[in-house]
Each structure stands twice: as structure tokens, then as C-alpha cells.
Design goal:
Length: 270
């Protein structure tokens, strides 16, 4: 058990070292990771100045707080190039080296994902604190103690959901030489339907059913709603259950695609 944990700790450490190899890319990604918030502030400032009221229960401060939370979550949990790296290893045949080692490839990728996200949030936490201070009047901390563990649980499941979706997309490289079109198409829908651009609950009521059952909702929007206490009680429990269901489905899909892909890879590449 100890040896197994030590093995994955070493993989975690390797992930940290790899991040520092491309430190300029890392730093630029950090800076541009929070730039969209500035644009959103000006856009919604103009919208609320024109409307002079609330939008689906959001006032200007509430809307800014929503985007503060989503920027924090996006930097904390969103995978960065994982699908491209995995697909490249499959396409270039480098995956063979991992198949001969006494470790789980999925476990290896989870370790590298966690190491990058941990280091990324550690570096970007300072700028996020600065933004929080600038917009401190918009911040409304949860009033109920239960919100904190519910938010932590939802965030952890959102991280797992995003990772397994990225991992599953990468597995397509076992069958398709170039996955960029598929990835960009999927992420185009994800960016719009996960709450990056605007809160999903301002969309028309007839889309409420789709939003409730869409997996993209639980990647970003739902954890933000939990933090803002806009979903509570039975609705919170139901949302967490749906999110857990999508997480299990994404994990199962990732495992299935891996097992099928490896069999095809072995048959072709020997």
C-alpha cells in the first residue's frame, strides 16, 4: 500500500516538474485565465446601467459575484491541454511505454492533472485575491454552514467530470488520427452551456429541463449556484445526485473507451 502511494506521489512530483519546464507558457496562461472577468465586468455594467433593475434575480453585484466564483472555479478545476497530451501520446506511440509499467495510466493522468491544478491555483490565488478585494462589495459569503461542504463536494465532482470528459475525448485518438475538430466542437457547446458566458438560469424557462439534465451544467454553473446559495434544500440534494450520476457516467465512459482503445492499439501496433 505504501509503495503504491509512493509511486503515485512520484508521478505527482513529475507533473509539478513538467509544469516548471514550460513556466512562461504557464505564467501567460495564468494571466489570461483571469482577463475574461474584466471584460465581463464592463459588459454587465453596461447592461445593468441600461436596464436599471434585476435580471432573473441577479442584481449587478450578484452578477459580478457569479463571475468571480466561476473564474475561481475555472482556474481551480478545468483541465489544461490534458486531452491534447494524451492524444499525442496515443498518436505517436508513446503510450506503449506506459502499458508496460506497473501502474494505471488513468491514475498517472489524474496525478499530473492534480499537480498542475494545485500549482496553478497556488500561483493564481494572489491575483484572484486582488480581484476579490477590488470587487469586495459584490462578495456575499454563504450564510449557512452546510453550504461550505456542499460547495466543496460539488467542486470536487465538477473537477472529476471535467477531467473524465477531457480524458474520454482524448481516447478517440485510438480511432481517429486528428481529434481537434471533435474537441473544438465539444468545447464550443461546453463553453456556452457550462455558464462561462452568463448564468444559465437567465435563459428562457422552456430550456430549464435541458439545463437541469445537461452534464455541462454541472461542470461550472451548478457549483457556482451552490456557493451563491441560489440552490438549497431538496433542489441542492437533487442537483448533487445528478452531478454524481454524470460523474459516474463520465468515469465509466473513460474506462470503456480506454479498454476498447487499448485492444485496438495492440492489434494495430503490436
Amino acid at each position: 500500500m505504501t509503495a503504491s502511494l509512493g509511486k503515485y506521489w512520484k508521478l505527482f512530483d513529475i507533473g509539478l516538474q513538467n509544469t516548471f519546464v514550460y513556466r512562461w507558457n504557464f505564467l501567460l496562461r495564468m494571466v489570461f485565465g483571469i482577463v475574461p472577468l474584466i471584460g465581463m465586468v464592463f459588459i454587465w455594467q453596461a447592461i445593468f446601467a441600461e436596464k436599471r433593475g434585476t435580471i432573473s434575480g441577479y442584481d449587478y453585484a450578484g452578477m459580478i459575484f457569479y463571475f468571480l466564483v466561476t473564474v475561481f472555479l475555472d482556474n481551480l478545476i478545468t483541465p489544461t491541454e490534458d486531452e491534447w497530451q494524451i492524444a499525442a501520446e496515443i498518436r505517436d506511440g508513446k503510450i506503449s511505454a506506459y502499458l508496460t509499467k506497473p501502474m494505471s495510466y488513468l491514475g498517472y493522468r489524474i496525478c499530473t492533472y492534480l499537480s498542475y491544478r494545485l500549482l496553478y491555483i497556488a500561483v493564481v490565488f494572489g491575483p484572484i485575491l486582488v480581484l476579490a478585494w477590488i470587487f469586495r462589495d459584490a462578495i456575499r459569503l454563504p450564510a449557512h454552514a452546510l453550504t461550505w461542504p456542499a460547495f466543496a463536494l460539488s467542486t470536487a465532482m465538477a473537477a472529476g467530470l471535467q477531467f473524465f470528459i477531457a480524458y474520454s475525448l482524448a481516447m478517440i485518438a485510438f480511432w481517429v488520427l486528428e481529434i481537434s475538430t471533435i474537441v473544438f466542437l465539444c468545447y464550443s457547446f461546453e463553453y456556452f452551456l457550462s455558464g462561462h458566458i452568463f448564468p444559465l438560469d437567465i435563459m428562457p424557462a422552456w430550456l430549464a429541463g435541458f439545463i437541469k439534465w445537461s452534464p455541462f451544467t454541472y461542470e461550472l454553473f451548478f457549483p457556482a449556484q451552490v456557493a451563491m446559495e441560489r440552490v438549497q434544500g431538496a433542489a441542492l440534494a437533487q442537483g448533487l445526485a445528478i452531478q454524481a450520476g454524470w460523474l459516474l457516467a463520465a468515469w465509466g465512459c473513460a474506462r470503456l473507451l480506454w479498454s476498447r482503445g487499448v485492444r485496438k492499439y495492440q492489434a494495430v501496433g503490436g
